[in-house]
Amino acid sequence: SVLIQAFLGFFSALSSISPYIKHYEVLSYDREDLHRKHLRARRATKLQAVTLELDFTAFHRSFHLLLRPDSEAFYKEFTVIGENGPESVELSHLYSGTLEGEHGSACHGSVLHGQFEGSIHTENGTYHIEPFDRYTSSPTDHHSIIYHEDDLGKNEPHGYGFSIFSKQVGLKEVTNQSHLLGEAEVSRVRRTVNESKTSCLLHLHTDHLYYKRFKTVEAVVAQVASYLRAVNDIFDKVDFDGIKLINFKVKSLRVMTREDTNDPLTPLYIGPEKLLSLFSEQNWGNFCLSYLLTNRDYSGVLGLAWEGKTSNWGGICSQHTIFRDGQRSSLNTGLITIQNYGQFLPPRHIQLTMAHELGHSLGSPHDEGSNCGDLGSSGGKGRYLMFPQATDEVRENNDKFSPCSIKHISKILKQKKDNCFVVSDQPICGNHIVEEGEECDVGQNSTDLCCYSAAEPVGVQCHLKPGKVCSPRQGLCCGKNCEFKPAGQMCHEETDCQEVTECSGLSPVCPEPHAKENLTICSQGTRICLNGVCAESVCVKHDLQQCDCPGDNMKEKCHMCCQQPDNPKTCASTTSSVLSRYFQGTSLPLVGGAPCAGNRGYCDKFHMCRLLDADGPIARLKNAFLHFDEFDDVAEWMKVTFSILSFFYMQQLLKSSLFIFIFMKPLWSFQQMNRHRDDFNRNRCILARIPYPTLLNSYG
């Protein structure tokens, strides 16, 4: 059977199943066996602990997939909305994982009716697997096809030319005809960006034409998951001028399973601009973005989206707004179609289309003009993601943003992101926290010796590099050489309540420190340990309660005092004879910062009780400069101060008058004499400059 499977794996279709797939091979592994494995995995109490295995042979090699349930494309409060309202939906058919024995590999997809559909990333490129019956209705012994990403393209010339992602001209015309009321000018003050808000929550609306292509709600959910996984692999690697780990999650999915004649989106022959305009009339203000997924042939238009602008002019976080024509619209919308010139697009093309349109929603125009239009045109790596035309072949730059796009998106993110983005509810590679599914996390640090950073390909990122045993990010018992520290090396110092802890030599994690015996004295003799924590007053050790020391002596109020339970009259210092059998007259000063005087003060470092000033430091400054504390009230202070100021003012006035009388009169006389002399000289100069008429005429 292995030979037969290998032979079938080498088989290449004689006739093309799609103009977008140049070469493919077929799969016929045991679907019933995979379905049974999936059912066992779904029944498991802890889904993440289950591994589903799938083996097959294709392209002259063996594939051994190790899959685990993964629904990270969906928000924790994800809901599916059917024709009758919210419906329960299973996400257990969604998986991600790796290839056994291949470091840095990754795979993600779904298992429905015993068939795996998804993508496999290997060191030799990416493979895609799809159901065979999605491309042909002819009977066949093979249920799936597999093809390499390098084989995506035209099998032979078709007169399509290039496919336009989005008709920006059409969008501009609509924008120019409609103007928002009361648009406030965006503040130019630089805003503080909340780095933890990285998730844009989506509402996706799949119409009946899209549903007809995939036939079940579970299959629609699986398609959406594949789009979001690919999109997030593009966005979360980009540093948008300090804003990192941007991702998208589906919060709500509307699935139209049949045609609704009352729905304005139903008619087949609606142009893309009109369809987006109708979809935008609904209020999508509760979502970061809302996208329509359809299966319509728009003759080269694969997607359309409002470009992200400030305020409500379009893109992320735009609210339902009234236009001058009185119509309300939400411009945080876009649409994607899965058909082009009568042919269904492969999933990879749809994924890139969605990433492209989301780029528009986040504020990026097309890569056009003298500065941006030629980016990626040389070097063989292909155009960048925001180039206005989609190429038939997938190249290296096709899923990357150009520097121009990053600049535009960064600007809009800084202005609008915090208005609607939320804190991610999933483990994020790159946040410096080792979370579930990660071996290490060094953020974007690509120079780390032990760990692959978040900038590396999916399947590698946040995992240990080959030959490395551990990463210091995993724990205190991993050295800088990426190996475990030797057994016996201290990793946790001894404290009042915990013993010293040493590395085991077998793990990067420092073992939990052992707690010292309960009732061990801590905090300079004033408290006791309970379960490894310096938790209770030393009074508790003797079945007493700590109390506020009696008397007015501020020094004594910072001593330890105890009382019989619920009997304040018995409160006494540890130095007193009443408590001598417990403390032998020992004075136990409270540590600095401890409350005293019934929580109205605190103990300073000299163990003196300092009462809190209700007026705070302003009152102390007031007293220091104005000496209010020497007077009974403000009125008295003003009387005294006014008398002093009046005397001082009269004294200065008298001095100034004498100075003017004695010195200014001679100065005035001297200035008058100089003024007369200047007037005489000025008149003499004017007379000397009058020319003779004959000279003027001779030179004229």
TrEMBL record:
Pfam families reported in the protein's UniProt record: ADAM10_Cys-rich, Disintegrin, Reprolysin_2
Full protein name: ADAM10 endopeptidase
Record's keyword terms, sorted: Cleavage on pair of basic residues, Disulfide bond, Metal-binding, Zinc
Enzyme class label: hydrolase
Enzyme Commission code: 3.4.24.81
Single biological process term from Gene Ontology: Notch signaling pathway
GO molecular function: metal ion binding; metalloendopeptidase activity
Source organism, top-level taxon: Eukaryota
Binding residue positions for Zn(2+): 356, 360, 366
Catalytic activity reported: Endopeptidase of broad specificity
Domain (Peptidase M12B): residue spans on this chain: 198-425
Catalytic center residues: 357
Residue span, Disintegrin domain: 426-518
One GO cellular component term: plasma membrane
